[in-house]
Design brief:
Distance between the termini: 5 Å
Number of helices: 7
Order of helices and strands: EEEHEHHEHEEEEEHEHEHEE
Largest sheet: 7 strands, mixed
Oligomer: single chain
Helix content: 10-25%
Low-confidence stretches: none
Radius of gyration: 17 Å
Number of strands: 14
Bound molecules: zinc ion
Mean pLDDT: 98
Structural class: alpha/beta
Shape: globular
Strand order of the largest sheet: 6-5-4-3-2-1-14
Length: about 250
């Protein structure tokens, strides 16, 4: 299984990084994890054709994690001429939030006759959902977004890939990433307890309990980026846009 970091930045362009988006290529399937506003820019840089992606999983309904769906919709219609179905999987209310965002930014875009099926699947806390050979289980995150915010645990290709989404520390982040082959964890600051986000010092204190084989730190704000060289734990990989990992 191959993971490509399409974007690993925070919401504010820290470090010149694109917003959250990961591309996963597994046996028989491909999918995205989150689709920040800059997702199409990242996919274009990497030469990944959006028409080859049948499923997009969304951790929570903040613009830097789902707004790219709006540009995706317009691109699919007018540029990519999409015909393959697209399934978007995310928190309760995702279709309504997507429609509001799309109509605000490209008025009339959701009413156009599409050449492909666009479906939405809502997640329920700690309930596994199977979509296109991927099993996803959402765990509660502590991060207000006007809908449930989730950490996502993916079982695919006999591997476990987990993603914290955005979250302050909450114990459900442990089962979300327990024993994962790779746990992508947001790391907004180096130390302290940032509101609704994590710091490296908090993550470090819980790594033993989580027991993930590898950790990738992501969603770093400028102060964390400046100190990321101080993270020397051998289990940890620091995310970079364009980074490719074999899982
Ligand atoms: Zn975010
Ligand atoms: Zn967020």
């Amino acid at each position: 299984m191959k993971l490509t970091v399409v974007g690993c930045g925070d919401a504010f362009g820290s470090g010149g990084r694109l917003q959250t988006c990961y591309h996963v290529e597994a046996a028989g399937t491909r999918f995205l994890i989150d689709c920040g506003a800059t997702a199409l820019i990242g996919l274009s840089r990497l030469g990944i054709d959006p028409n080859t992606i049948p499923t997009i999983f969304i951790s929570h309904l903040h613009g830097d994690h789902f707004a790219g769906l709006v540009w995706w919709l317009v691109h699919a219609q007018h540029v990519a001429k999409r015909i393959v179905p697209l399934t978007v999987v995310g928190p309760e209310g995702i279709e309504a939030r997507f429609t509001v965002a799309a109509e605000a930014l490209f008025s009339g875009s959701t009413g156009v006759q599409r050449r492909y099926d666009l479906g939405f699947v809502e997640l329920a806390k700690e309930t596994p959902t199977d979509v296109d050979q991927v099993r996803v289980t959402p765990f509660e995150a502590k991060h207000p977004s006007g809908a449930p915010s989730y950490a996502l645990r993916f079982e695919v290709d006999s591997k476990v890939l987990s993603f914290s989404g955005d979250s302050e520390w909450v114990d459900s982040l442990v089962p979300a990433g327990q024993g994962a082959d790779l746990y992508i964890i947001e790391c907004y600051q180096f130390d302290g307890a940032p509101r609704f986000h994590l710091s490296w010092k908090t993550i470090e204190a819980h790594l033993g309990r989580i027991g993930a084989k590898r950790i990738m730190l992501t969603h770093m704000a400028e102060p964390m980026l400046a100190r990321r060289g101080e993270v020397t734990d051998p289990r940890v990989v620091l995310a970079e846009d364009g980074l490719v990992l074999d899982i």
